[in-house]
Amino acid sequence: MSPHLAAEDLSMFGTDPWWLVVVKAVFCFAFLMVTVLFAIVWERKVVAWMQLRIGPNRHGPWGLLQSLADGIKLMLKEDVIVKRADKAVYVLAPVVAAVPAFMAIAVIPFGPAGNEISIFGHRTAMQLTDLPIAMLFILAVASVGIYGIVLAGWSSGSTYPLLGGLRSCAQMISYEIAMGAAFASVFLYSGSMSTSEIVAQQNDRWYIVLLPVSFILYIVTMVGETNRAPFDMPESEGDLVGGFNTEYSSIKFAMFMLAEYVNMVTVSAVATTLFLGGWRAPWPISTFWEGANHGWWPLLWFVVKVQLLLFFFIWLRGTLPRVRYDQLMKLGWKVLIPVSLVWLMCVATVRALRNEGYDFTDIALYIAGGVLVLLLLSFLADMFRDKGDKGAEADRADEDRAAFDPMAGGFPVPPLPGQQLPPVPRRRPRRERELIVSGGPDTQSDGPVSGSTDGKEASDG
């Protein structure tokens, strides 16, 4: 791997005749649609298997046509537009959400960049096109899809869709920051933002081995970016009815569902390209079979890797419960973003030292020494900060308990963080409850329990 920036050779792109470009574009669209149809059935089958259920088994062999039947059903449903909706934006929002999801696949390589395959007698690359800034193009089109969800929630004219749209906007923006930092680590190692060049730089070792932290960060952020469980806050039916798409039906609702699954395929393809060697065959196969990375075989390895990542999506949904929204945002802003920035600085330092000719052992010692110094400084800072904060927290807790009003605003409110509910009156003793039932005094102030049961006689006497 060259320590300097790689010189991208993209001359093979842009030379195909127009009809071949159309064929490639249709193939990319068909690949996404067929993968989505399969992923929906596969998800329902796998989740049913995890929950000891049968799953779809009526339409087609083994229920494989269930997702196609669902799509036809949605298209034939009545298309309802609510009265309070902004009609133009309401209709445009599903299109804005779905179209960018299809655009990112244009720069994903399905095979080598050279003229490896022949289509109707014309040699071409297994990629629609490539750009020197292809990864920035993917980030850009992914960001545009957020507008579709936000506009859908706002244009519906309802409270719950608006909350779902705002949740989705905050979630996607926060997780895209950590995703961009994970991309930057790959850019530093490959020296390029071109997808075909990034795959070419993984000839010896995949980046999942060289950049494991970046891979883990991207896996977490891609789940948050696609609004999938356990990060499906914008669509949490438990508290938002259905989220941003509550007021949608028929084909518009189907387009939101299509956009979600296409985004799953897209982020899985990006993960395969950046960290899993792209279209390259796995290690045992590539060592003893020279033709594994030539011809149409790279398409098979690429599809297998994408399907494994889709299975990871399904596995998470069937395993982990939905997190609270504050936990989701805390993970994004207080964990993923700091870790991604620190890891990016470490990767940049390693690359700079390697370019200067330092040995790997010296680099490891420098990095380990820097990490130990940071840990020591953070430990000392936490120790002195805790001593000063204990007294302030105790005083603040006393003030909050004194100032807490459970009926603030005229209706019951829960205590804020740091506040406590007032003490609950203890239950009366059993003998006192029996006296109350039999007509005795109902409080201690009415008279002693052992005295007269008549309050007036006790006072006269």
UniProtKB/TrEMBL annotation:
Claim: Methyltransferase is one of the keywords in the record: no
- Annotated compartments: Cell membrane; Membrane
Q: Where is the composition biased (Pro residues)?
A: 412-424
Give EC number(s), comma-separated. 7.1.1.-
Any one GO MF term held by the record is: oxidoreductase activity
The reply on keyword Oxidoreductase is yes
What InterPro entries does the annotation carry?
NADH_UbQ_OxRdtase_su1/FPO, NADH_UbQ_OxRdtase_su1_CS
Annotated region described as Disordered, given as residue ranges? 406-461
Q: Which UniProt keywords apply?
A: Cell membrane, Membrane, NAD, Oxidoreductase, Quinone, Translocase, Transmembrane, Transmembrane helix, Ubiquinone
A Pfam family annotated for this chain is NADHdh
Q: Reaction catalysed by this chain?
A: a quinone + NADH + 5 H(+)(in) = a quinol + NAD(+) + 4 H(+)(out)
Compositionally biased residues, Polar residues: 441-453
Which PANTHER family does the UniProt entry name for this protein?
NADH DEHYDROGENASE SUBUNIT 1, NADH-UBIQUINONE OXIDOREDUCTASE CHAIN 1
Q: What does this protein do?
A: NDH-1 shuttles electrons from NADH, via FMN and iron-sulfur (Fe-S) centers, to quinones in the respiratory chain. The immediate electron acceptor for the enzyme in this species is believed to be ubiquinone. Couples the redox reaction to proton translocation (for every two electrons transferred, four hydrogen ions are translocated across the cytoplasmic membrane), and thus conserves the redox energy in a proton gradient. This subunit may bind ubiquinone.
Question: What HAMAP family does the entry give?
Answer: NDH1_NuoH
Q: Subunit comment for this entry?
A: NDH-1 is composed of 14 different subunits. Subunits NuoA, H, J, K, L, M, N constitute the membrane sector of the complex.
Family membership, please give it.
Belongs to the complex I subunit 1 family.
The protein, known as: NADH-quinone oxidoreductase subunit H
UniProt source species? Streptomyces olivaceus
The record's gene field reads nuoH
